[in-house]
Amino acid sequence: MAAARGGQPLRFRDMVIDVGHNRVDRAGTSHQIEPKPMEVLYVLASRNGQVMSRQDLIDEVWGVAHGGDESLTRAISLLRKVLPDHIRTIPKRGYVFTAEPEAVAPPPHPAGRRWRPWVAGAGLALLAVIGIGAVIVLFPKPAPPPASRIEGIVVEVKPLIDGGDGHAAAMATASLTSALSHFDQIKVRAFGAGAPPDPRQDYIYTVTGAIAGTGARAHLDAQLLDPASGDTLWSGSVPYDDRAASAVAAELEPAALFVTKRRVQARPAAQLSPWELILLGTWVPGADQEWLGPPGPQPYWLWERAIAQAPDFALAHASLAQVMADFALFDPPSDTPQAAARAAKAADRALQLAPYDAGVLYQIALYDRYAGKREAAVATLDQVLAKEPDNIAARIDRDFAQGQCGANSAAASAQLQALDAELPPADPRHWVVLSRQADLALGRGDYAAARDYAARSRLMVRQVWSSVTLAAADAELGKTGEARLVGLEHKGQWPSLDYGRFASGPVSRWCFGGDAAHAADAFRKLDAAVKNSG
Fold first, then answer.
1. Which helix (H) or strand (E) holds 385?
2. Are 180 and 188 in contact (CB under 8 A)?
């Protein structure tokens, strides 16, 4: 259960804490605060001068069932960078926020009028009566905060082991717990900390592992377990160095999302919570065969149902914006000025609710990408990577957005190749890299390379994005029969898909407004091949 936040700013003599916009205004400077640290700040600041224990803060911000010890440590550290003089640690007791309240000057007495004691007495009595109502009006019960995260996924980190005195394992455990806490989509806590999660409401996983080997051969092995069944859901090994914890965390987060999505899919849609509905419509590495489409009579019902249940769920608005922009590329009925305006409104609402949430920002970056906004997409992905440096999907999309149909295409392709070499052999994101490589190659007119990348991507996941690139490359290379077969395959999935229309319009968005000549020519030839199939 998240800490409650009201819409009115908290005002002090030297600062304003704008809880509605995750901002602190102080000394003429605005400081943006991440959502969870802002909730911690709100709880402390609304109790100005009152010491709060770590456990009380955790229970109020993260919820009794979830804990959040490492997350609280990180939140306090971030807040102290902005307010070093206002948040103090009280040894063995907790934390306290101290600030001088905003001064309110009394109104001047009317000129020539004497102050009579009976008037004062009547006035005080009246104020006593009015004051009760004024407190209710001026200080209403705070409303729940704008939600931005997927809730209900709990990852407990069990102490790692090593072959020595345990010091290295303790350091690695702390580092891994801290690294996982940077991901917005999961709750992380030390093993056994706080009250146990409720298995009827939460998706609970345990991380175990060990440091094996010595010196240059040392490596960190980790596993993601289902504590209910004992099944190993994911396992991996990385060299044990300064980046080991971050590297393992970057693999654990999508693994937890993947297994959770599988479990959500098995439940009746009518019983799903807003975050579960959005998870169904969210791309998760490894769950790629469940690619959404084609749009039907109610193409956005997942997102609409989630927003109806939780109007301030920022991730639902952001996800709706990106899927609408995605559908607009391939489905002509979805590509209207009204739909574009609705998608833009959803994106704006998401940023208004949670402007510094990495999960929300990533969805907005995808929206910008599908809408053809190169600079906005790159800038937003930079924000995501500033918060989650090991977010592989964001790194892939940033390289792609910088190079597609532009002068940096070859450089972006080289960066993606280097990134692909970093991924473990079984990593499900290989197909994504190959698909982006295919689009880069098609955009710069290297049709043979585009065909090779797209064909390899399609062997992993048969998905419309890489398939249309493969078909377009085949058409340009004179492989008309192959182009027709693949092109018609996805015409069956997206009945309104029109390659000629794509070549004359949406391809400019696909190219981020760059030089679309090579891609447009390929899609025109694909259109001719498909239309001549009869």
1. helix 374-387
2. yes
Centre a 10 Å sphere on the Cβ of residue 118 and count the other Cβ atoms it contains.
Answer: 7
- Burial (0-12, 13-18, 19+ Cβ within 10 Å), 171: middle
Q: For residue range 273-294, what is the model confidence (pLDDT) as tens digits?
A: 888 888 888 777 665 544 455 5
DSSP string, 449-482: HHHHHHHHHHHH---HHHHHHHHHHHHHTT-HHH
How many angstroms separate the most distant Cα atoms in the chain? Answer: 100
Closest CA to 257 of 228, 229, 286, 236: 286
SS3 at position 150:
coil
Answer whether 484's CB lies under 8 Å from 478's CB: no
Architecture in CATH of 422-534: Alpha Horseshoe (1.25)
Please tell me the distance from the alpha carbon of residue 153 to that of residue 76, in angstroms, as a whole number: 23
Domain boundaries in the chain? 10-97, 153-265, 267-280+298-389, 422-534
Contact by Cβ (8 Å): 356, 22: yes
pLDDT digits (tens, 9 = 90+) for 338-396: 999 999 999 999 998 888 788 889 999 999 999 999 999 999 999 999 888 878 899 99
CATH superfamily of domain region 153-265: TolB, N-terminal domain (3.40.50.10070)
Query: Tell me, what's the pLDDT at 4?
Result: 40
